[in-house]
Amino acid sequence: MSVAVVGPVVNLMDTGVRPAPLFLPILIGSIGLMLAHILIARPAVAEISVPAGRFEFAPVPEQVFVAGIGETVQLGIRQLDPGNRWRAGDQTRASGWTSRYPTRLVNVSTGAPVSGFKYDSATGALQYGGTFKGDVTVRLERTDAPIRSNNFRIGALAPPFV
Hints:
The protein is of the alpha+beta class. It has 2 domains: 12-41; 63-157, Immunoglobulin-like. The chain has helices spanning 12-15, 19-41, 77-80; strands at residues 63-66, 71-74, 103-107, 117-120, 125-128, 134-142, 152-157. The strands form 2 sheets. It has a 4-stranded mixed beta sheet with strand order 1-7-6-3, with no helix packed on it. A 3-stranded antiparallel beta sheet has the order 2-5-4, with no helix packed on it. The radius of gyration is 30 Å and the shape is elongated. The protein starts with 11 loop residues before the first helix and ends in a 5-residue tail after the last strand. The model has no long low-confidence stretch (mean pLDDT 75).
């Protein structure tokens, strides 16, 4: 194997030039500028824009309750009214948030309200009374427009005892 050398070989240490002290600060500064550009160029929170007059449900996850123990869960704004946000962290609706759209929770197979559960259209609160056992496939529907969510399951499961 042969190596071709073009021009004279110069040892930078013999010339008094010290590349290491300049190289490292320039490298660190360059990386910092690249990272700053990447971080500043993107918004910290995703922007959601809903055109006026348009409303769609986001996918609703499965809701599971413990059979025999009544509980209320809050369906989120992403499912109910994405253009009408409530204050961050306000999971109890202390701000007084209500949905702008009338909705109902229905059994997919019958189209009727789901027995054993109460759904508050204004607040999106789903209340389990503690009597229903099993699971049912449901969906949210707007009552003023032909818009519906994905089908999702709600269930009340009895814990196994050993």
